[in-house]
Amino acid sequence: MMIWHCESFDFDDAGPATRPAGIAHHHLDGDDLSPSPSIVAFACIERGDSQSAAENAAQELVRYADFVGKKSRIVVVPFGHLSAELACPQDALGVLQSIKSRLGSHGHDAHLAPFGSDKRLRMTTYAHPGAVAYRLVA
Known about the structure:
Layout: E1 2-16, E2 36-43, H1 51-68, E3 73-78, H2 89-105, E4 109-112, E5 117-125, E6 132-134
Helix pairs in contact: 1-2
């Protein structure tokens, strides 16, 4: 996961993606998000990732939120570009939804950006040590 601490983050769903073949478009959180301070996690679900990976990812994001001192909005952005070993779309979506749910159970305002879509992202990041982090989660 690539994690960014953002002064402002929002996106527009630009429509269904055409790659990888067979991916279905899912817009689960209703309307596009308005610009707001956020922790943004670009997450890639790989073959073999399971619900334990979802729990580990959620724990890492909660630790990161504690590190930056915020109980803030956390947006999980599906981002298959981080791997060549992608899980099948339905498995990936299940793990991503589980991450979102677990973050919500920790008291965070958790969101999942559209899955299987092209997104127009707008983000302004903070410039402090740790404003950008990478976590390998299994």
